[in-house]
Amino acid sequence: MATPTGIKLQRILTSQSYRFPELFNAAFEEGAGPTIDFLSDLFARYRAAGEVDVSDNGRAAVAFLSLVVGGVARLITSGHRIAEEEIEARIRFSVQIFLNGIRSRGGG
With a threshold of 0.85, does the pTM exceed it? Predict the structure, then answer.
């Protein structure tokens, strides 16, 4: 779960991102960059195996993070208290939707 200090920092960073876009981008790259790289590589491997249909691995990775993590993170940083079970249910649901969306359909 996010710490109170981490939530405050995220709120400040988000609210000031229009004034300091380079800071926001750097924080995003520092935090999410390795995960995006990992997911991009993973999608490339599954695409090569014919299991997923992804035309842009980097965009797919960002979309995955936005769908799976972004919604829950926005709720938490906006002050909502979410039970662990609800967080888990939301994440599982989002992963299922994403994976069903990129699944190869065996046609062309």
Answer: no
